[in-house]
Each structure stands twice: as C-alpha cells, then as structure tokens.
Design a protein that fits this description.
The chain has 87 residues and is mainly beta. Helix content is 0%, strand content 55%. It contains no helices and 8 strands. Strands 1-7-3-4 form a 4-stranded antiparallel β-sheet, with no helix packed on it. A 4-stranded antiparallel β-sheet has the order 5-6-2-8, with no helix packed on it.
C-alpha cells in the first residue's frame, strides 16, 4: 500500500501457523511488517520493541495455515525474522 523507495529493501516469507492464536513477528530492523492470510491483510493488534536482537515486534491474530509475511522499507539489505506465539 506504500509507494516503493528504490533505496529501501523488502521481501516475502511464507510461514505455516500450526494453531490459531496471537503470534508475534519480530525483526532485527525497523522494516514495515504486513501479514496476509487467505489473500487478505491481517490487522495487527499490538506493536512494540523486542529484547536482544529483536528491534521491532508486531502481534497478529492468526488462524492455522499458511501466511505470507511481507517486509518493506528496510534500510539494511539483510534482516533476521522470528515468529512465535507469546501466549
């Protein structure tokens, strides 16, 4: 939904969610995070800063099945990504 900036980086990651619940997507950078499930954007429910190597963490309510995580606006060429269920 944002106009691309050629000096910034982005990418896609497909992940299988084993059970419905709230999941956090954590990044080592401050890139934008969007999650798509069944071809539709999933609204986030919380945002925050992580600990250690996690600079940014965003929570999404997800159903079991495949999701696509879309990253955009990353200033670095590389990013570490982590998905976990906090509850």
């Amino acid at each position: 939904e944002r106009k691309p900036d050629p000096s910034l980086h982005g990418g896609l990651v497909a992940v299988t969610i084993p059970a419905a619940g709230n999941y956090r997507v954590g990044l080592s950078s401050g890139a934008w995070i969007d999650v798509l499930q069944d071809g539709k954007s999933v609204p986030s429910t919380a945002h925050g800063h992580g600990e250690g190597c996690v600079r940014k963490a965003v929570t999404f309510p997800l159903r079991a099945g495949r999701v696509v995580i879309q990253l955009s606006g990353n200033r670095e060429a590389d990013v570490r990504l982590m998905v976990w269920r906090p509850d």
